[in-house]
């Protein structure tokens, strides 16, 4: 079942966003509000709701959220939506619109969306409790009063959707973090909860590095010790405080939905506006110069370290070393047409098909060959963090000068540093800036575009 396997239930928020937009627009259509320009009014309502939802994080509801938290979300959303609703009259000069009908309309959508919101909340809890779907497997490191309370929460509050698998006691003489690491990997554990009071600084650092390099979520039961991390976030499971090591913006469903919507729209524009006519021309030129396929298809690692087929226009003669040796300066394998399309980044255009199919995003860490992923995962600290998001056609590291061939270790270290910054600090505005800078760089030409 899809939601049993899916970690973040990414389809839930888009579905309820669409339902809310339908409610908003259907009530507006049938209520006697007397608006003169239907397309303008419906577009204004829809855009206002989407922007407010993004700003107020209206659809950011956690599995452990309380009813008061949802009520606060509803209050914040509808206070501003009500102001924007009545602002339409003055801003677009609509004196004939009925203020009373608008008040009735506002009350109806408030009640309707409120009911939908709580229905969503209750159904998800029921789903986790009864069907055992949307589950996260967890282990606890530590044996004390707080860890016992946490395990009790996991076992009794089954509507939260946590499956407690095992507990490790650091105070036992035979405690070995390596054994914990092996158990976590072998049993496909999603989240690790550490009692900071029972772990030394070296052990804490070891768990942090393990979680970063193995795509595991690490959380802490806080005490008076220092936790060396750039970002810490408080959460409450029932009334028990939990510290998260980092908050990844794209793991918030509304952010992921916004990015995915943009990816689909942008990729369709490129596919039908550019690739549909430039593709046949390049296909002829590539085949005239050298025999072989038009497209170069290579396995690369993507989101959650899963393999996918990455598409490019073939820029080299057919050879047996493509999966092992990265293209370098004055590479004899590169054809004449290949030099041009690599210098202008035209060879990357077929990756918009990858974006449309969902393997990639427009912006994100560049996907690496399988050989390089295996190599760097063992030599570059926190390398695997870049796989918390989808790989991109372009990325922050690329527009900062770290694209192309890896000539020395500092190249990949700096690239990963920018990739991790992107993962931890993503915003839609950042994506737009990176896309604009990528276009500018393509026009200017880049030193390592060979």
Automatic annotation (TrEMBL):
<dbReference type="Pfam" id="PF13727">
    <property type="entry name" value="CoA_binding_3"/>
</dbReference>
<feature type="domain" description="Bacterial sugar transferase">
    <location>
        <begin position="259"/>
        <end position="443"/>
    </location>
</feature>
<protein>
    <submittedName>
        <fullName>Putative colanic acid biosynthesis UDP-glucose lipid carrier transferase</fullName>
    </submittedName>
</protein>
<feature type="transmembrane region" description="Helical">
    <location>
        <begin position="74"/>
        <end position="92"/>
    </location>
</feature>
<dbReference type="InterPro" id="IPR003362">
    <property type="entry name" value="Bact_transf"/>
</dbReference>
<dbReference type="GO" id="GO:0016780">
    <property type="term" value="F:phosphotransferase activity, for other substituted phosphate groups"/>
</dbReference>
<keyword id="KW-0472">Membrane</keyword>
<comment type="similarity">
    <text>Belongs to the bacterial sugar transferase family.</text>
</comment>
<dbReference type="Pfam" id="PF02397">
    <property type="entry name" value="Bac_transf"/>
</dbReference>
<dbReference type="InterPro" id="IPR017475">
    <property type="entry name" value="EPS_sugar_tfrase"/>
</dbReference>
<feature type="transmembrane region" description="Helical">
    <location>
        <begin position="37"/>
        <end position="54"/>
    </location>
</feature>
<keyword id="KW-1133">Transmembrane helix</keyword>
<feature type="transmembrane region" description="Helical">
    <location>
        <begin position="264"/>
        <end position="286"/>
    </location>
</feature>
<keyword id="KW-0808">Transferase</keyword>
<keyword id="KW-0812">Transmembrane</keyword>
<feature type="transmembrane region" description="Helical">
    <location>
        <begin position="104"/>
        <end position="124"/>
    </location>
</feature>
<dbReference type="GO" id="GO:0016020">
    <property type="term" value="C:membrane"/>
</dbReference>
<feature type="transmembrane region" description="Helical">
    <location>
        <begin position="12"/>
        <end position="31"/>
    </location>
</feature>
């Amino acid at each position: 079942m899809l939601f049993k396997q899916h970690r973040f239930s990414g389809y839930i928020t888009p579905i309820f966003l669409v339902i809310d937009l339908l409610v908003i627009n259907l009530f507006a259509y049938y209520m006697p509000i007397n608006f003169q320009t239907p397309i303008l009014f419906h577009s204004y309502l829809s855009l206002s709701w989407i922007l407010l939802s993004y700003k107020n994080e209206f659809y950011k509801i956690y599995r452990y959220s309380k009813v008061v938290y949802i009520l606060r979300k509803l209050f914040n959303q509808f206070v501003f939506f009500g102001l924007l609703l009545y602002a339409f009259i003055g801003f677009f000069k609509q004196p004939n619109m009925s203020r009373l009908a608008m008040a009735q309309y506002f009350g109806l959508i408030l009640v309707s969306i409120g009911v939908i919101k709580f229905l969503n909340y209750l159904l998800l809890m029921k789903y986790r409790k009864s069907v055992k779907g949307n589950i996260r497997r967890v282990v606890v490191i530590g044996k004390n009063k707080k860890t016992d309370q946490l395990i009790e929460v996991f076992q009794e509050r089954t509507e939260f959707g946590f499956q407690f698998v095992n507990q490790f006691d650091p105070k036992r003489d035979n405690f070995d973090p390596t054994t914990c690491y092996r158990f976590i990997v072998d049993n496909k554990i999603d989240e690790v909860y550490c009692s900071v009071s029972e772990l030394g600084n070296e052990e804490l650092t070891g768990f942090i590095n393990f979680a970063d390099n193995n795509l595991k979520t690490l959380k802490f039961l806080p005490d008076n010790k220092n936790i060396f991390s750039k970002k810490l976030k408080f959460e409450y499971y029932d009334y028990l405080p939990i510290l998260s090591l980092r908050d990844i913006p794209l793991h918030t469903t509304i952010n992921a939905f916004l990015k995915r919507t943009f990816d689909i729209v942008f990729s369709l524009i490129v596919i039908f506006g550019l690739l549909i006519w430039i593709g046949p021309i390049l296909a002829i030129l590539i085949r005239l110069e050298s025999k072989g396929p038009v497209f170069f298809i290579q396995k690369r690692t993507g989101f959650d370290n899963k393999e996918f087929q990455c598409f490019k226009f073939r820029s080299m003669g057919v050879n047996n070393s493509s999966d092992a040796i990265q293209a370098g300066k004055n590479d004899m394998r590169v054809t004449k047409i290949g030099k041009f399309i690599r210098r202008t980044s035209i060879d990357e255009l077929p990756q918009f098909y990858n974006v449309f199919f969902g393997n990639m995003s427009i912006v994100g860490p560049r996907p690496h060959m399988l050989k390089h992923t295996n190599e760097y995962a063992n030599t570059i600290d926190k390398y695997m963090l870049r796989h918390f998001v989808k790989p991109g056609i372009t990325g922050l590291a690329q527009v900062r000068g770290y694209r192309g061939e890896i000539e020395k270790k500092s190249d990949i270290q700096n690239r990963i540093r920018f990739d991790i910054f992107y993962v931890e600090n993503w915003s839609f505005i950042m994506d737009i800036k990176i896309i604009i800078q990528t276009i500018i760089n393509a026009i200017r030409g880049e030193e390592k575009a060979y």
